[in-house]
Amino acid sequence: MTFGYGHLAALYGLYLLCTVATWKTVIFAGSHRLWTHKAYKAKRPLQIILMIMSTFAFQNTVVDWVRDHRMHHRYSDTDADPHNATRGFFYSHVGWLLVRKHEEVKKRGKFVDMSDIYANPVLMFQRRYAIPFIGTVCFLLPTVIPMYFFGETLNTAWHIAVLRYISNLHGAFLVNSAAHLYGTKPYDKTIKPAQNSWVSFIAFGEGFHNYHHVFPWDYKTAELGNNALNLTTLFIDFFAWLGWAYDLKTASDDMIKARSERTGDGKNIWGF
């Protein structure tokens, strides 16, 4: 079968969509809900899958990701928050990666408990071999595979791999920026994180951010899971059905309702 430009465009479109969806779902299931918040437990095979896919995503190592995100929740929207949203959209979206860390981030970061992460051999493997492992999984293989199987040129394959990577980053970074600046606050009107359905659509369920900052230990990160947008919850539920994910933590309906009535803004309770 001879592939024309239309076939290649369709294949690359499917490749881009699948890798973006897979990465976002798996990094949020692993680095975020499992390792940062301990919202559920995972058996070793699932941990290995999650670690490899977080390597494919490449937002630094899981160790660094967890440390920064635990800082973000402990000191949310202050100078000790690595991507402090009070410094504006650009800073919380990507600017925080372009400048030196604030002194408060460096000082208070020393007191974040990371003992569980340092004791995890799967995550220590990724950290130990970060440069060759991440370089191979994130950039080399996504470039070489289209060249070998589809006869693509190096120039096109490389730039598609980079496009996939950049698209993933900006989709995830909207959780730090847009979801801390725009939306409703049905659970706690005194904090900056908000419910933003557009971010949830782009980030596969991570935009129910007012809920998440009130109940960070809920494995769903959203009321009732909001499965229409929350593919990450469906991913975890699937592995719970297999028995690889277990001890899933969640807030009860009564707890959610009581908190909403006590501190919420009375708007848009389901995040839409």
Descriptive overview:
The chain has 272 residues and is mostly helical. It has one domain (18-263). Helix content is 60%, strand content 1%. The chain has 13 helices and 2 strands; from the N terminus they run αβαααααααααααβα. The chain has helices at 5-36, 44-57, 62-74, 89-93, 103-109, 115-118, 121-128, 130-150, 154-176, 197-202, 209-214, 231-242, 253-263; strands spanning 41-42, 245-246. Strands 1-2 form a two-stranded antiparallel sheet. Helix 1 (5-36) packs across helix 2. The protein is globular.
In brief:
The chain has 272 residues and is mostly helical. It has helices spanning 5-36, 44-57, 62-74, 89-93, 103-109, 115-118, 121-128, 130-150, 154-176, 197-202, 209-214, 231-242, 253-263, and strands at 41-42, 245-246.
One letter per element, helices H and strands E, the order comes to HEHHHHHHHHHHHEH
Compute the CA-based radius of gyration.
Answer: 19 Å
Helix content: 55-70%
Low-confidence stretches: none
Strand-residue proportion: under 5%
- What's the pLDDT, averaged over the residues? 87
Please tally the helical runs, counting DSSP H or I stretches of 4 or more residues: 13
Number of domains: 1
Q: Strand tally, please?
A: 2
Strand pairing plus helix content: what structural class? mainly alpha
Large-scale geometry = globular
Major beta-sheet overview: 2 strands, antiparallel
Intertermini distance: 46 Å
Kindly report the spatial arrangement of strands forming the biggest sheet: 1-2
